[in-house]
TrEMBL record:
Upper taxonomic lineage: Bacteria, Pseudomonadati, Pseudomonadota, Alphaproteobacteria, Hyphomicrobiales
Name of the protein in question: Trigger factor
Family: Belongs to the FKBP-type PPIase family. Tig subfamily.
Enzyme class of the recorded protein, top EC level: isomerase
Limits of the PPIase FKBP-type domain: 171-231
Organism, as annotated: Bradyrhizobium japonicum
Keyword Chaperone set for record: yes
This enzyme's EC code(s): 5.2.1.8
Listed InterPro entries: PPIase_dom_sf, PPIase_FKBP_dom, Trig_fac, Trigger_fac_C, Trigger_fac_C_sf, Trigger_fac_ribosome-bd_bac, Trigger_fac_ribosome-bd_sf, Trigger_fact/SurA_dom_sf
NCBIfam families, per database record: tig (TIGR00115)
Reactions mediated catalytically: [protein]-peptidylproline (omega=180) = [protein]-peptidylproline (omega=0)
Keywords: Cell cycle, Cell division, Chaperone, Cytoplasm, Isomerase, Rotamase
């Protein structure tokens, strides 16, 4: 076998490999001998078929298998000998001329092919004991608890009919009958009777609820809206529609007395028990926010400490996924890059930087996990599946069956578990110091990111 490196540019390598026909013939011959005891051919006793006859019958298919196996074995050995870790699947180029292919399958010429690869660079891991990480911690205040309970009360308050002649305002609930048309034609699912709409809840198509403001009971209006471009029904997505809408009742939200009786409507013994439950839930939410802040800070530190060239193909793949998502969201919202105070080229440059960071961090976390034998158990993945199932009451079996039969979906569950375990491993080594902050400061970065997005 002869191996010649024809390209070595950064993380990209290409090799020309030649395997003598005699080697292929020997391997194919061994396969044919092994085949003697496995095939049944009329006119021959089991195990007595001459190899020459087997070659006439199966020679080309056996040679094709031999070539395929030889390429796999040769590439594996080549990459192992040179210490390559592949970033992507190798790209193999074989002879395409019909005459040359025939000669190869008939064992009359050497196997010559090229293999192009992109490798993962060697990663020198930082000393994690030198990392300084600040952990913001916020205590749950009585005000936080009171505000949380008020939000619960607002979502559980009842409605009462407004006085005759009263008009609908934001926050009111309007009961409507409607008939929707597109280009003058009624469409499937576009009619409804006795439908209750809370103005400002944003549960209907954008623009629908706002046009109900000022409507009175018995009044009919034609509401003009457009279905979002990413609407779940492809036939309606992006289509302008008109809804002939009649209000049959206007109701105003009622104040809720926050007391023991209210707590009992939620299945709790008293207001004190409700406050206790609200405090526990807020504490869990604060802990989650703290975790995200710490993780973000740690990933920033890892990014700073590990600067290397990321495999271009992986960066391209990550960028394309992100960019397609961004474009879809902007198209759905009807926005342009000018609306975001930027240009398409500037946005692409920014997202490519993000893609590069994600790929590098992914490789660093993988390297840390591999070197420290960090793994995700089947039990951990199973618990994640159960948690997903619990989030979809009534569809638990459907969720379970989906993950059980979908290896890619399971891998998507496994990945964040693995990442969190690696993060925890680093935090055990790093110097983590707690800092007391207010609730506002704990969520400040998160709120800023949402605003920027």
């Amino acid at each position: 076998m002869q191996v010649t490196e024809t390209l070595s540019e950064g993380l990209k390598h290409e090799f020309k490999i030649s395997v003598p026909a005699s080697d292929l013939d020997a391997k194919a011959g061994a396969k044919l001998v092994d085949l003697k005891d496995k095939v049944r051919i009329n006119g021959f006793r089991p195990g007595k078929v001459p190899v020459a006859h087997l070659k006439k019958v199966y020679g080309r298919s056996v040679m094709a298998e031999t070539i395929d196996q030889t390429i796999r074995d040769t590439n594996t050995q080549l990459f192992s000998d040179r210490g390559f870790r592949l970033a992507t699947e190798p790209k193999i180029t074989m002879p395409t001329e019909q005459a040359e292919v025939e000669e190869l399958l008939n064992g009359k010429t050497d196997l010559t092919y090229t293999v192009a690869i992109e490798v993962v660079p060697a990663i020198a891991l930082a000393d994690f004991k030198s990392f300084q990480v600040e952990k913001p911690v916020a205590d749950v205040s009585d005000t936080d608890v009171d505000e949380a309970i008020k939000r619960i009360a607002d979502t559980n308050r009842g409605y009462a009919a407004k006085a005759e002649g009263a008009k609908a305002e934001s926050g009111d609930r309007v009961t409507i009958n409607f008939k929707g048309t597109i280009n003058g034609e009624v469409f499937e699912g576009g009619t409804g009777e006795g439908i209750q709409v809370a103005i400002g809840s944003n549960t209907f198509i954008p623009g629908f609820e706002e046009q109900l403001t000022g409507i009175g009971a018995g009044e009919t209006r034609t509401l003009k809206v457009s279905f979002p471009k990413n609407y779940m029904n492809d036939k309606l997505a992006g289509q302008p529609a008109e809804f002939e809408t009649t209000a049959t009742a206007i109701e105003a939200p009622q104040d809720v007395a926050i007391d023991d009786e209210f707590a009992k409507t939620l299945g709790l013994e008293s207001l004190d028990k409700l406050k206790e439950a609200a405090r526990e839930r807020l504490a869990a939410e604060f802990a989650g926010a703290t975790r995200q802040r710490v993780k973000r800070a740690l990933l920033d530190r890892l990014d700073e400490a590990h600067r290397f060239e990321a495999p271009p193909s992986l960066v391209d793949e990550e960028f394309n996924l992100m960019w397609n998502s961004v474009k879809a969201e902007m198209d759905s919202a009807g926005k342009t890059f000018a609306d975001e105070d930027t240009t398409e080229d500037a946005a692409k440059e920014e997202y490519r930087k993000i893609a590069d960071r994600r790929v590098r961090l992914g490789l660093v976390l993988s390297e840390i996990g591999e070197k420290n034998k960090i793994t995700v158990t089947d039990d951990e993945v199973g618990r994640a599946v159960i948690e997903r199932a619990r989030q979809m009451p009534g569809r638990e079996k459907e969720v379970w069956d989906y993950y059980r039969s979908n290896a890619q979906a399971l891998a998507q569950l496994r990945a964040p578990i693995y990442e969190d375990k690696v993060v925890d491993f680093i935090l055990e080594l790093a110097n983590v110091t707690e800092k007391k902050v207010s609730r506002e400061d704990l969520y400040k970065d998160e709120d800023a990111e949402k605003t920027a997005a």
